[in-house]
Amino acid sequence: MKIQGLKLTQFKNYDSGQFVFSERLNCFVGKNGMGKTNLLDAIYYLCMCKSHRGVNDRNVVKHSTEFFRLEGYFLNEKKIEKKSKSKIKIVAKVQPGKNKEIEKDDVAYQKLSEHIGMIPVVIIVPDDTLMATEGSEERRRFLDNTLSQLDGDYLKNLITYNKILKQRNSALKKFAETRSFNAELVDIYDQQLIGPAQVIFEKRKEFINSFRPVFKEFYQDISSGQEKIDCIYSSSLKYGDFANQLKESREKDRILTRTTCGIHKDDLVFRIETHLLRKFGSQGQLKSYVLSMKLAQYDFLKKNHISNPILLMDDIFDKLDEGRVQQLIKLILEKNFGQVFITDTHENRVEEIIKNFATDYKKFYIENGELKE
Description:
By secondary structure, the protein is an alpha/beta fold. The protein has helices at 36-48, 130-133, 136-150, 152-178, 183-223, 242-248, 250-256, 277-280, 283-304, 322-334, 347-354; strands at 2-11, 14-20, 25-29, 68-77, 85-94, 101-104, 107-108, 121-124, 229-234, 267-272, 275-276, 310-314, 340-344, 361-367, 370-372.
């Protein structure tokens, strides 16, 4: 999948804008705060129906305005039909506080989840290191982002599970407030959680088993290191029946007014040699690790989706040493990462990247939400 053109209206710092992209490499150059990252976020929004930062739409609409609109034109090159190419128009109409509307070829989706996975995308940003240093939520988000783009059944079960979990937690809080307890109601929630949880658990486990070898290979390519690394899936469902776990933790849940076991507590354990990465990994190892995770995510989506993903890379060269920059550029060239978008504050560094792509590229200068090609 490739995006050929983009129109923005009142999106972040853009009053309006119109872009026509190269099908191979696109570079956005400019000082910090000019709007380079916002362009990547606009592309991501058209793919995933939300900002990659996970912020509320009120923080996406341009300041002092009431709505934003995005319009993207995509070329769908299906791998199973090499001669089959079709153009798709995706439009996002968003007025914060009201239901957002996503259209495909002028027809609105009934559910936003129907769109997820149509345009696979991977975004790499400096804050990806939080995946290694922060709590388990960031790592579960990585799992959900990857699997939701490949598997509609996974996304459906994830939405169902989160909805029931929210209801169960709300009931537990209400019981505490009213000093009451309705065991029958909790039983109902428990029964509704079990099915979706099992589906999610099995799909996450299967994914990690396939993902780990690819991830390890990318790490070796980027770091040229000899250390052994691993990514291990951790879930309470590995150690017993979920129904029994819910029963055994019920009293604890009642006291804490929240559900303390389940797939919403799953985690990925990042290891280097025999140690936890976040405690013993150097800055270089940490950056190489999370970058390898994202490149392996791209590779996994590419191999398992009927369309190649779009790769968005935001200001990451500024966070890597020269050796890792060269290795990363080499990987992008050799492994055919399809359509790539890069932002950078240094024009000379961009020129070094561009010269390896021959003539199949476009370079854009961004200043205060305005474009110079």
